[in-house]
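Please check both lines for our workbook:

___
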Amino acid sequence: MLKIDVNSKALRQALQDGGQHFVEKEMRGVVSEVVNTVRDGARKNAQAAGLSQSGPTKDARGRVYNRRGKIPGAIYSYVAKQEGETTRGFVKVQRSRETFHWVFLEFGTVHMAPRPFFFRSLPENEGAAMAAAQKRFDDAIPRILKG
């Protein structure tokens, strides 16, 4: 799970004229831009690591195993309900019997080297995520002040 916090305290203090619900809605939109960008990066990393392939595959020892290819589709993001001054967004991998092994791929085991795809998506996409959030925030300011 990657967690991104955006503190909207300064914006709320500037807009104490009853538009608080509108500000919360816009902040949720800003945070959703960030988490969606990070989620998309994690999905691309998983696909680049070959985790979207399905069907029979041979490993290095020649053993055949069946790839499920479900991990990229199991990566999702959401914005949680507002708690005080903070809007929180999350990026997670949905756990199921077909995707439980993502942790072993991400961190490795005693028998397998790690093939990270999930946690590296935040640093790799930080610039794009912040640019998307800034654009959404810049678009929201006129709506907030008018609202």
Q: What stands out?
A: The first helix runs from residue 9 to 14. The two ends are 34 Å apart (CA to CA). The helical segments are 9-14, 20-48, 71-74, 102-107, 121-146. Residues 8 and 85 are 6 Å apart (CA to CA).
